[in-house]
Amino acid sequence: MRKVKEVIKEIFNCSVEEFYSFLNISLQKKFKYFGKQIETCAILNAKSGRCSSDCKFCAQSAKFRLNIKTYPLLEEKKLLGAAFSAFEKGIDRFSFVTSGISLNSEELKIIGKVVEKIKSLNSKAKLCASLGQLKKEQLCFLKECGLDRYHHNLETSREFYPKITTKQKWDDRVKTVKLAKEVGFSVCCGGIFGLGESEEDVVSIIETWKELQVDSIPVNFLHPIKGTPLESANFLTPLKCLKILTAIRIAIPEAEIRICGGREYNLKELQPLGLFPANALMVGNYLTTKGRSLKDDAEMIKDLGFESNLRI
């Protein structure tokens, strides 16, 4: 059996004609594991800005001077309202996302209370959270409250990570992912491409996801934001984005692959082809950038002959 590294490198360096054969292979693998159904998820920026970390791509870092909304954890009413609004539109999953390296105990209790409330009213609601680097007991608390999935990105490869941030250790991110799996969570763990990473870095992070056996891989593509150190980054093309998605599907055929932030900016007219390898889509707005309408995404999914639960 060929090594993952060899397959990924071939995808990245093949001719256009050969690549579209790989794209078809990724589609067949997607069909095998997930059929025609496209799962959708939405997020809420539940606590914004003032992050002590220094990730060069992130508008929420306190290290950079950007004109974004900053606010503490939203009140319970707003958290509940955002989740129920998403489910009413047929969105399959909903996630609370907070800025910062972690949450304090009071903030965690609020999230737990909200999760319990939603689950008491809709036991089938798929709830996720991205709350930073939590300890095992904190993750156990969220699990007991009814949270279904925990999300924590590695962002990029172990090798390239020090060039992107200095405040958080890559190994600590991996530890969080492993702890989430240990307490029984379904785990969503992805990254962001277009930071200046090499082909070797792409191979490395895909190999890590495969080794960790993550359930869902959210793929973000850098949408450069003015005021961040990467505001002038221009490392991606639509075809390169498509090759990354294809490589992930072929390397890890059984994992959910969801296209997330930066898809409109980077995939451009190739967005529909992104759903050949990917079986899931983040819809609505992202943390600090706007997404597109649910109507447009629902129509794209339908036009491809795929299916979703979106109601528009």
Task: List its traits.
alpha/beta; 9-stranded parallel sheet; 11 helices
Explain what this protein looks like in three dimensions.
This protein is an alpha/beta fold. It has eleven helices and nine strands. It has helices spanning about 5-15, 15-35, 75-90, 105-120, 135-145, 170-180, 200-210, 240-250, 265, 270-275, 295-305, and strands at about 40-45, 95-100, 125-130, 150, 185-190, 190-195, 215-220, 255-260, 280. The protein has a nine-stranded parallel β-sheet with strand order 5-4-3-2-1-9-8-7-6. Helix 2 crosses helix 8 (about 240-250). The protein is globular and about 55 Å long. The N and C termini lie far apart (about 45 Å). About 45% of the residues are buried. The model has no long low-confidence stretch (mean pLDDT about 95).
